[in-house]
Amino acid sequence: MLALGATGLLMAGPALAAGPGCATPDFASQAQALVVQQVDNGVFSGTVLVAKDGVPLLRAGYGAADREWDIPNTPETKFRLGSLTKQFTATAILQLAEAGKLSIDDPVSKFYAPAPAAWSKITIRHLLNHTSGIPSYTGLPGFFENGASKKPLKPEEIVRLTQDKPLEFVPGSKFAYNNTGYILLGYIIEKASGQTYAGYLSQHIFQPLGMKSTGYDVSGDVLPKRASGYEPGKGGWRNADYLDMTLPYAAGSLYSTVDDLLIWNTALTDGKILTEASRKAAWTENLEHYGFGWGIAVQDGHERVSHNGGINGFSTAMNRYPKDGLVTIVLSNFQAAPSTPMANNLAGLCFGTYALPKAIAVPKATVDTYVGSYALAPNFILKVFRDGDRLITQATGQGPIQIVATAPGEFQAVGLDARISFKQTGDKPATALVLHQGGRDMEAPRVADKP
Predict the structure, then answer these.
(1) What domains lie within the chain, and their CATH numbers?
(2) Packing angle between helix 155-163 and helix 179-193, nearest 10 degrees?
(3) pLDDT averaged over the chain?
């Protein structure tokens, strides 16, 4: 494994600016420290870009694109995007609507002839905003255990996996994140345009914008500067399981770089790709804070349009703050990387609403009273252990996270919106911990003295 300490950090091409318009005066150095903490924590490798009004404030690669050859990540490294793909799919649909080749209120059956009768009221709009009620193929029991993810599938073959199953709710009545819907959207793009999904995006989005490092990922192709994907394994990282890229298709099969995504960010509001009316439609909240291929939210008083992605070996996030001219992009080739919290916290640093946790000194003997295993659920254990002078937590199936003491018995997870407090009497070993995350306080009793 690569050395993960600051002195052993593989960081390529760091570009730092003073942070014009950021409330944090030393934003660049603070942002750099935030990312380096995650690298040192052993949970991040990838590329990060933060830009204000189109000017990069931080643009750097961290860790290795290929851990076996120690090839560093750079801003030019290509990463699989996962569900960041959905914004491009939604944009293509809106372009075709502008061209009069479809209406977003057309029934799905107009383009997908085998649609069952139960789908008669499902429209393209429902697919865009995840309100169709169609089951998501990635949620089918045993789907990833039966080898299907390793075989090439046509879009219609993927859709057939769910079309005979009952709808989960009346179309338009609820939100349920749905990858099948975006497979159907890709199919509709092909039917309405007469082109392949990949060909349409290339001709109508990537080429016009000069996004030369973005495209549809094909597993067998030799793609220069493509990062290898990794996932947590026993004792460290392991190569991610193989995934045939026909499977995520229009729901998650694109690759890109941070530089190309910055180009994309600019194009979204300059009228080159969509009319203002279409762009507003995409960024208008429907149910559950979701538009067309974008999540809609408010972060610390700042409007945010964002999406994240997770696919074998990769974790991604892209946040836009339209009224602030800010964009944060985090692309990682480690599946368990905290890309979304990193993107959020980088923005918080700029706004002055987030600060890196300030650690207090804790005697070693006191730290040792926290070491052990704690049960958040019968099969979900949070281990707490020492790594030199650092205190680390690791949940079942997840990567290790450093926690730093901010008050007696109180710890902050580095780079995450999560805190841990320990319950104990005097200097005896802690009897439980409480995980404070997402507005919830979850108590976990101690179940073992050793992690």
Answers:
(1) 80-351 (3.40.710.10), 364-448 (2.40.128)
(2) 130
(3) 92
